[in-house]
Write a structure and sequence with these properties.
134 residues, 5 helices
Length: 134
């Protein structure tokens, strides 16, 4: 199983991180701005806690984020102690929309690889044309 860092233990993130640990069998390290919530999660699910997003991400295979707004996402990923530093893959499960394609290059650090996704569906202009067979 994978070693996963999970950043953000809100209404969605708390059970998602727990599912990764209990159902997925992954080794999970969590970070939350409120340390008491991270400690509660670790006591309930048996994972580890970290004091910063960067500490949570170090040495893990994936970093998953589930935070509430754009500024929080930037802070936990790109901030001074952000989780993007030195990781292999990042998956954002945040409900915030991804940055526009034109600004994505300025948002993403280099040369690290990261994947950002959102619950926001692609616009019709981004979808490939459908081929219909009659």
């Amino acid at each position: 199983m994978a070693k996963v860092a999970f950043l953000g233990l809100g209404v969605m993130g708390y059970p998602m991180a727990g599912h990764l640990k209990t159902k997925g069998g992954h080794e999970v390290t969590v970070y939350n701005r409120t340390a008491a919530k991270a400690e509660k999660w670790a006591a309930q699910f048996g994972g580890k806690t970290a004091k910063t997003p960067r500490e949570a991400a170090e040495g893990n295979d994936f970093v998953m984020c589930c935070v509430g707004n754009d500024n929080d996402l930037r802070e936990v990923t790109l901030g001074a102690n952000g989780g993007f530093a030195g990781v292999k893959k990042v998956r954002s499960l945040s409900i915030t929309p991804p940055p526009p394609r034109t600004s994505r290059a300025s948002f993403m650090p280099r040369p690290r690889k990261a994947v950002l996704s959102s619950s926001t569906p692609p616009s019709p202009a981004d979808r490939p044309a459908r081929k219909t067979a009659y």
